[in-house]
Specification:
Elements: H1 5-18, E1 22-25, H2 30-43, E2 47-48, E3 58-60, E4 74-76, E5 89-90, H3 93-104, E6 112-120, E7 129-135, H4 138-147, E8 149-150, H5 152-158, E9 164-170, E10 180-184, E11 189-193, H6 198-201, H7 204-220, E12 223-225, E13 228-233, E14 239-245, H8 252-256, H9 262-267, E15 270-275, E16 279-283, E17 289-292, E18 297-301, H10 311-316, E19 322-324, E20 327-329, E21 334-336, E22 348-349, E23 355-356, E24 371-375, E25 392-400, E26 410-412, H11 416-424, E27 427-429, H12 432-435, E28 441-443, H13 456-468, E29 477-481, H14 501-512, E30 518-519, E31 524-525, H15 540-545, H16 551-565, H17 574-586
Parallel strand pairs: 1-6, 3-19, 4-5, 4-10, 7-9, 9-11, 14-25, 25-29
Antiparallel strand pairs: 2-3, 6-7, 6-8, 10-11, 12-16, 13-14, 13-15, 16-17, 17-25, 18-24, 19-24, 20-21, 20-22, 22-23, 26-29, 27-28, 30-31
The structure holds oxalic acid and manganese (II) ion.
Length: about 600
């Protein structure tokens, strides 16, 4: 399939080490995918679902010990420890290679080795990058087909270039004690062993598109961010594109596919989804920042996805989708998960493969981190710019988190550096369901804590530097949102979901310069009257209560930020230290 010497060398080296029975190159043809699907059905790796209700859809179950990303076993193997920084696990690369090679030795014996050439981003786009993933898992091949662009055309686009990421994955025995997800940023290399769970084995996603790409972006003058990308189309046809970063469990996929309230729909507003998880962002010729979604599908959390919370995502899963660790409804051979509807199946199989009755069982049927892998083209609100090779021009960056108090519904940063500060202090309170302890604050700068492939202090510095290259009139505006303010009784105050459109609408007006805002210690906060509440289940007074900025609370918050910042030592950009001091001063 290719004469590229570096690709051939890499494939041969893995073949020699892992010793497979066969080698199959994934050329992107339907014939080959069909053949592999048949094989996976025969072994039980995949279960075919109802072809009328869910055409082209399959169910897969992972091992019970292998259901999520494993941050504790994820390593940045930079040559110098300092370059991994205080927020990553570091492993000396020579030691890591030695250990991984011992695990990989003969790991494919009796198995087939698949070589997947894939592009992150539209093939041939100047913003796209190429990878070769080698794996012994058909599940990985079929998921990579959905999540990335795969096939001969990728190798053609690569030509004889050495600029590709080498990803090796081996299932081995799914032994959690020998599970490693390792990144060698200086070698463009990823090695993942002893897992079969998507986030650990679909190497294009977190491993390449965030950890390796963030490192590449710093060296090459662009940014790889954990951001959804959406476009807001106004009735006059003008579209504003925004990138938004949230820690998990803050409704990122829901925001990416938001359905505007009736009044907005009637007036002609539309929201388009360009991506739900990752953005690659680069300055264009005109000086503005342009973004692509490097992925080709959605690897979404299934539980909680419903016709109410996210009809677009649900619709996207109706064909050519792979479900992982959800409930199998035996009555009609379809799938179900908690939060899909109030009608769990009685004659069903749970994610572990045991018989399950949703009406009587007291255990969950779907694994809480069960997933759908759905092609982006299936999404009813996918943007017409999804395949754009130049990307979409960014008008705003939105940061956010889950905070019961302190952080108002929305505020705008003063300028770029203040915006970077706002992103760097992102934080979320854990929910009781997730941890057993409610209200524990976790700082997660730009939602990149588990995904930054180098020292996070340098990452902040890179953000500052990117801003210095963009003329201020071309810079996106920065906003922070908090959909999760609670009243004294612990009830959420803001209705959220589609009503978040009202906040996005205010941002558009700020971008256009058609609405004033109140200057506060933390930035610009809306006047309540400027947020459109027509048809909204929230009164003006209630809205006012979640727009308040409590200086005493922010003075305390600033102490926490200062403390958090000490982690980064002298790598903390002085611009951010200055922003923190300025916040402290303004709260007095
Ligand atoms: C994801 C994550 O799966 O951020 O997207 O964990
Ligand atoms: Mn994510």
């Amino acid at each position: 399939m290719t004469k590229n010497k570096k690709v051939l060398e890499y494939v041969e080296s893995v073949e020699k080490l892992c010793n497979p029975d066969n080698v199959v190159w994934i050329d992107g043809s339907e014939e080959l995918y069909n053949k592999l699907t048949e094989e996976a059905l025969a072994t039980g790796e995949l279960i075919k679902l109802n072809d009328e209700l869910l055409p082209g859809c399959y169910l897969h179950r992972t091992a019970v010990n292998d259901v999520a990303r494993v941050e504790g076993r994820t390593f940045i193997c930079s040559r110098e420890q300092v370059n991994a920084g205080p927020t990553n696990n570091w492993w000396n690369p020579s030691e890591a290679y030695e250990k991984l090679n011992s695990i990989l030795k003969d790991a494919y014996k009796g198995r087939t080795m698949y070589v997947i050439p894939f592009s992150m981003g539209p093939v041939g786009s100047p913003l796209a990058k190429i990878g070769i993933e080698i794996t012994d898992s058909i599940y990985v091949v079929l998921n990579m087909k959905i999540m990335t662009r795969v096939g001969q055309n990728v190798l053609d686009a690569l030509g004889d270039s050495n600029d590709f990421v080498r990803g090796t994955h081996a299932k081995c025995n799914i032994d959690e004690n020998d599970r490693y997800i390792c990144h060698f940023p200086e070698d463009n290399t990823i090695i993942s062993v002893n897992s079969g769970y998507g986030g650990n084995v679909l190497l294009g996603k977190k491993c390449f598109a965030l950890r390796i790409a963030s490192f590449q972006g710093r060296n090459e003058g662009w940014m790889a961010e954990h951001m959804l990308i959406l476009g807001i189309e106004k009735p006059d046809g003008k579209i504003y594109y925004m990138g938004a970063a949230f820690p998990s469990a803050c409704g990122k996929t829901n925001l990416a596919m938001l359905i505007p309230p009736e009044g907005y729909k009637k007036a002609g507003y539309k929201v388009w989804c360009v991506g739900d998880d990752i953005a690659w962002i680069k300055p264009g010729k005109d000086g503005r920042l342009y973004a692509i979604n490097p992925e080709n599908g959605f690897f979404g959390v299934a539980p909680g996805t419903s016709m109410k919370s996210n009809p677009n995502a649900l619709q996207a899963t109706k064909k050519n989708t792979i479900f992982t660790n959800v409930v199998l409804n035996k009555e009609n051979n379809t799938v179900w998960w908690e939060g899909m509807d109030k009608n769990p199946p009685e004659n069903a199989v749970d994610w572990k493969g045991n018989d399950w009755n949703g009406k009587t069982s007291d255990v969950k049927g779907a694994q809480p981190n069960s997933r759908f892998t759905a092609p982006a083209v299936n999404c009813p609100c996918i943007s017409s710019e999804f395949e754009s090779t130049t990307g979409v021009p960014m008008s705003a960056f939105i940061f956010g988190g889950r905070r019961a108090k302190t952080t108002p519904l929305v505020y705008q940063a003063r300028d770029w550096n203040h915006g970077v500060f706002v992103g760097s202090i992102m934080s979320s309170e854990t929910t009781a369901a997730a941890t057993g302890a409610t209200g524990v604050l976790r700082r997660d700068p730009m939602a990149m804590l588990p995904f930054c492939g180098y020292h996070m202090g340098d990452y902040f510095g890179h953000w500052i530097e990117m801003g210095s290259k963009i003329p201020s009139d071309k810079q996106p505006k920065f906003f922070n949102v908090n959909w999760f303010r609670q009243d004294e009784n612990g009830n959420f105050v803001w209705p959220g979901f589609g009503d978040n459109m009202r906040v996005l609408d205010w941002m558009v007006k700020r971008i256009e310069g058609t609405v004033d805002a109140k200057e506060t210690a933390i930035g610009y906060v809306p006047y309540a009257k400027d947020i459109n509440l027509d048809g909204c289940d929230c009164s003006l007074e209630t809205l006012e209560s979640i727009l308040e900025v409590d200086n005493a609370a922010w003075a305390k918050e600033a102490e926490g930020i200062k403390e958090f910042y000490t982690k980064f030592g002298d790598k903390l950009p002085k611009e951010l230290a200055k922003e923190c001091d300025a916040l402290i001063k303004r709260t007095k």
